């Protein structure tokens, strides 16, 4: 899963530790999400969405691809 968590986190000037605390997850789990090793649960994805004020699609999916389907 490609995501923009790292870019969004850095744009806010946050470390992985700081963002992880705000979302309520471990720094290691955040790192794994950022590098695509782990996929967040819906509730964690919603936490990122709420924190960054962006949709889950905007954060976790390519601009023109949603759930493996090309937007037309």
From TrEMBL:
Domain HTH cro/C1-type: 5-59
A Pfam family matched in the record: HTH_3
SMART domains tied to this protein: HTH_XRE
Any one GO molecular function term: DNA binding
CDD domains given in the database record: HTH_XRE
Keywords, alphabetical: DNA-binding
Protein name as catalogued: Helix-turn-helix transcriptional regulator
Naturally occurring in which organism (per UniProt): Companilactobacillus halodurans
């Amino acid at each position: 899963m490609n995501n923009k968590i790292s870019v969004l986190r850095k744009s806010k000037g946050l470390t992985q530790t700081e963002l992880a605390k705000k979302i309520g997850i471990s720094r290691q789990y955040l790192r794994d999400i950022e590098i695509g090793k782990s996929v967040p649960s819906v509730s964690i994805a919603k936490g990122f969405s709420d924190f960054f004020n962006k949709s889950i699609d905007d954060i976790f999916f390519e601009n023109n691809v949603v759930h493996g389907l090309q937007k037309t």
